[in-house]
Amino acid sequence: MTEAHARFEGSVPAFYDRFLGPFFFDPHARELARRLALRGGARRVLEIACGTGIATRRLRQALAPESQIVATDFSQPMLDYARARLTGADVHWRTADAQELPFKNGAFDAAVCQFGLMFVPDKAAAFREARRVLEPGGCFLATTWCALGDCPTAALGAETLERLFPEDPPRFHHVPHGLHDPAELRRMALEAGFTEVTVERIDLEAHAPSARHVATGMVRGTPLAGMLAERGADLDRVIEAFARAMRDGEGAIPYSAPIPALLTTAT
Fold first, then answer.
1. Which helix (H) or strand (E) holds 94?
2. Which residue among 45, 167, 172, 188 is least packed, with the fewest CB closer than 10 Å?
């Protein structure tokens, strides 16, 4: 992974939140928040890589009013967007690197990370830090995408880029789908000091107003936008190519597709 793959800045947060959030992220955010609430007793919760606050909002709705949520992200533009989006919510916001969290040992009784671990260069360090800031008996819930071939929408995007740019295709989609091995996730959690680890596949279906709606988010709401700009590409033409591939000649209004992910629960 290069720095370009984690460049969520400029107009990216707004497109990410509006076009990708409801389709890719909110369904899993609801499930993540539900799982944590069912465990009970979460009073001091750390969210790692909160992005634009999609999971943060669901956590705030699902947890008891007296629960404290500290939401962090490495990207200041994403964190600023989340803070503005959730104005009035009882959430503490903090810029933080998942590889070196600025909190004391045992400061939280639960930690969550939705689709952020894939962008962390040292993923083992992120697991160790999550373990360090949890009190004994605390739990860490993390969602990561399944393999690219299991996620049809993202796979179509990657295939379209290879067709449009045969000499030098942007390979952004391979990064968010690069942490999909349950055995690897389990190993890192155990080596970090967690003693009970489960990795479960969560199969959900996502819905959007149209294929073009999702395509717009995939192109303009991720660091792919910058990679395409560096190649002098017309973003609207790439969006249309994505949408055509997703429609497959059927119109796709509205658009639906599977969005399978892995949920790692470590205690």
1. strand 92-95
2. 167
Amino acid at position 257, single letter: A
Which two tokens mark 153? 């929408």
Which residue is listed with tokens 């717009």?
A: 216
Give every residue of the chain whose pLDDT is below 70, as ranges.
Answer: 1-7, 248-252
Query: What 3-state DSSP class applies to 240?
Result: helix
Residues 144, 117 contacting (CB under 8 angstroms): yes
* Entry pTM: 0.94
Rounded to an integer, what distance in angstroms lies between the CA atom of residue 26 and that of residue 80? 19
pLDDT tens digits for range 194-213: 999 999 999 999 999 999 99
Structural domains in the chain, sorted by start: 3-266 (3.40.50.150)
